[in-house]
Amino acid sequence: MADHKVSENGKLTTIIGADVHIKGDMIFSNPACILGEVEGTIIGKSEISVGEGATCKASIEAQVITIDGTVEGDINATERLQLNASARVTGDLVAQTMSIAEGASFIGHCRVGSSAIKSAGSGGSSIEAKPKAPQLANANIADLRAKIAGLAQTKAG
Fold first, then answer.
1. pTM of the full predicted structure?
2. Residue 48 forms beta bridges with which residues?
3. Spatial separation of the C-alpha atoms in residues 75 and 105, rounded to whole Å
4. Do residues 17 and 1 touch, judged by C-beta distance below 8 A?
5. Number of H helices, E strands in the chain
6. What is the number of structural domains in the chain?
7. Separation of alpha carbons 37 and 92, rounded Å
8. In sequence order, what E strands does 17-145 have?
9. Judging by beta carbons within 10 Å of its beta carbon (0-12, 13-18, 19+), is residue 136 exposed, middle or buried?
10. Domain interval for residue 83
11. Which of 2, 9, 14, 110 has the fewest other C-beta atoms within 10 Å?
12. What's the confidence (pLDDT) of residue 26?
């Protein structure tokens, strides 16, 4: 079940409990902490945390991303990505800044810095031998953003 807590800065944090399994796309306006299982796409406008014991077969995009659990999918952090000691990640990483703790496991390609963020945002890829499945995940994120924009225009109109 999803729950909420108020963080130190007064923002509401959504918590996806350890007993929850979600299939589909999730969009968070406030910080979120995943403790259960997620399959799909996770988009956060601020911070996303994947807790120890959590499993995500999902692409994740947010400003700040912290991983303590298992992620199978591409990760795009526009500000900071942190892989802690218990993190297990398979997928391509793009981040403005990144830290990987001793003991963390990462299999994939990695791009770090402002030029990496710019090329990821423009849809360009400096990785030529990138597998087809992660490219589909990026297309799903673009489709999801287009749907959100369309819904916002429908509500405004």
1. 0.72
2. 32, 65
3. 14
4. yes
5. 2, 13
6. 1
7. 20
8. 21-28, 32-34, 37-44, 47-50, 55-67, 70-72, 75-83, 88-90, 93-100, 105-107, 110-112
9. exposed
10. 2-156
11. 9
12. 96
